[in-house]
Amino acid sequence: MIKQLLASSLIALFYVSGFEPFGLVIAPLFCLAYLFYFALNHSPKKTAIFYYLFGFFCFSIGLYWLYISIHIVSGAPLWLAILLIGVLSGVMALFYCLVGFIISYAYQLFKSKYLVLTLLAPAIWTLSELLRGYAFTGFPWLTVGYSQSSTLLSAWAPIGGVYLVSFIVSLIAGYCLLISSKIRPLLSLFSVLIIIGSSFFIRPIEWTERVDKEFSVALVQGAVAQEKKWLTTEFIRTLTLYRNSLLNLENTNLVIWPEVAIPAYAENVKGYLDELESILKQQNIDLLMLGINTKGKNGEVFNSVITLGGDNREYHKRHLVPFGEYFPVPKFIREWLQKMKLPHRDISIGPEVQEMLKLDQYFIATSICYEDIFGYELLDYQPLANVLVNVTNNAWFGESIASSQHFQMSRMRAIETGRYLLRSTNTGITAIVMPDGNIQEELEPYNFSILKGNFYPMKDETPYSRFGDLFVILLMTLIMTLGCFIGILRLKNKNV
Length: 496
Known about the structure:
Elements: H1 2-16, H2 27-40, H3 44-62, H4 66-73, H5 78-110, H6 113-134, H7 157-180, H8 185-202, E1 209-210, E2 215-221, H9 226-229, H10 232-245, E3 254-256, E4 262-265, H11 270-283, E5 287-295, E6 301-308, E7 314-316, H12 331-339, E8 357-359, E9 362-368, E10 385-392, H13 402-417, E11 421-425, E12 431-433, E13 439-442, E14 449-455, E15 458-459, H14 463-467, H15 470-495
Parallel strand pairs: 2-3, 3-5, 4-5, 9-10, 10-11
Antiparallel strand pairs: 1-15, 2-14, 5-6, 6-7, 8-9, 11-12, 12-13
């Protein structure tokens, strides 16, 4: 058992190193190859336990920064922070446990390494990641496809999204294991070369087209510490900081402030917002997008983005963070949280269908923080949306790897939709991302700064924008069905 603990923890550590900010992109591929190898050489029960341990360590290591949010920023007891991270890691590990059991069982049943490694294992892994991205409101963090956002393999994202990239990585891992095991090595090597060659061929394809009009943009990075954000002593300083950021942005088409840049309800700072409207006119700024809390007609509170300077509109966050923005717990636990002076109040969910924000005649697909880790959340806006905007506040997680992990996932949204991504953060990574996922410009995190740049609205749509995750679901189902059919035929032929 000690060997399993040590091996699974090392594999998990190596796997996490494949994601930003480490960027050892080859690591997840080797980890998958080893996990597949383990499944083929151990019983389903033993494999399930090993995969569970891998998943537990993977999330414990990769999400250690939740400790900063829960204990340091929110003030929860240390034991509670450790417990919550452990529970989350344990729940997420169940997906890996199921994957390990099924892959090992499939090999025990069909007795064909080639069949399992080229059809069943990659499809099972991909479907499990897809399920994890939807189940229980979804949590796609550390999905293997994200590790390839800067590589050639990301060329598959406009076709089938991040989950198709996951399938490609797991398929290559299966072929690499076959090569090392000397099972049809030439055919396996040829298959890998075909996948890489196809990626080279697909990469230059421009699925979308930019319009002729270029726009200027300024992304403001406030760098307001989360511990100070809601202090009354810091309120005026925060308002002044953001207001003054407009004074040197004359003739800018679009200015974006981060999530809840103004720590107040919009209804309570109407005078300030009116002042901003005047400054926008003086500076000839077309549109300001800013994060702020708003109230609904019945007193419900929304995490919102509002626009000033033009056709003033609002966007309310639709995909909330469980145990961060709402608490699905019994009343007695909520009362205990309140007694401990911990976050316990719910933010309201924005309507599923909302009017898109606009700049001139072009539509903006807006997401707030956590929402941009879900590719399907942005599909509602396509193909009408011409540009993606994300406002974020990563100050909850300090100067940890969370900002880099989150930004890597954000970039995948630009690739999937073939749109520019304009990302304004409080202390995370503020950047302009091009439709191919490359970073046009970015700021150093954790310092106040303003990124000035340009972007083009985009038109047309990618295959992923049109079909979403349905394509991958159908493809994986077809591959698994084909694999099982071939396996059953093999069994029948052996029994004849």
